[in-house]
Design a protein that fits this description.
Layout (H helix, E strand, L loop, with lengths): L5 E8 L2 H10 L10 H6 L9 H16 L4 E9 L8 E12 L2 E10 L2 E11 L30
Antiparallel strand pairs: 1-3, 2-5, 3-4, 4-5
């Protein structure tokens, strides 16, 4: 992990289901995230993704790269162009700072109309000595087999 290291891009298809499911999962019941007619009445061409879904996708992007032991310490993002159904968002990132096992990653998420999300994620990777070794596990299995009775049935 060095300053300047680039994370591989992640393409995310923006589907109606992703937008609505993300809004419901984050308890954001604003109509612009699930009702296309009401979103259009408010000036949007369609429903659009909420910031909490974007925040989760940014976190996923970073932990997919650094692994499941990575700890997100800070996520600071700003939204720009909305994510509408039928578009694709491409997340990219580069390491800006490194201090021991902690890095700051600059994130950009772009879609067909511009920059959807920009910001930074501070992530810490545990040192090998900080991750406890799993103790050995012993499994005992006892199998009892009954002898068949005279009729051939046990």
């Amino acid at each position: 992990m060095r300053v300047g290291d680039v994370l591989p891009p992640l393409e995310i298809e923006i589907t109606r289901t992703l937008i609505v499911a993300g809004a419901i999962a984050s308890r954001d019941y604003q109509d612009v995230h699930h009702d296309a007619d009401l979103a259009r009445a408010k000036g949007s061409p369609d429903i659009f993704m909420n910031i909490l879904t974007t925040n989760g996708l940014v976190g996923r992007y970073v932990t997919d790269h650094f692994g499941p032991a990575a700890v997100l310490r800070k996520v600071a993002i700003r939204l720009g162009a909305p994510n509408h159904p039928g578009d694709t968002m491409v997340l990219t990132g580069a390491i800006e700072e490194v201090d021991g096992g902690t890095a700051v990653v600059r994130i950009l998420g772009a879609n067909g109309i511009g920059r959807h999300v920009t910001g930074t994620v501070t992530v810490t990777l545990p040192t090998p000595e900080a991750v406890p070794a799993s103790p050995p596990v012993t499994v005992t299995v006892t199998v009892t087999v009954a002898a068949p009775s005279e009729g051939g049935v046990a």
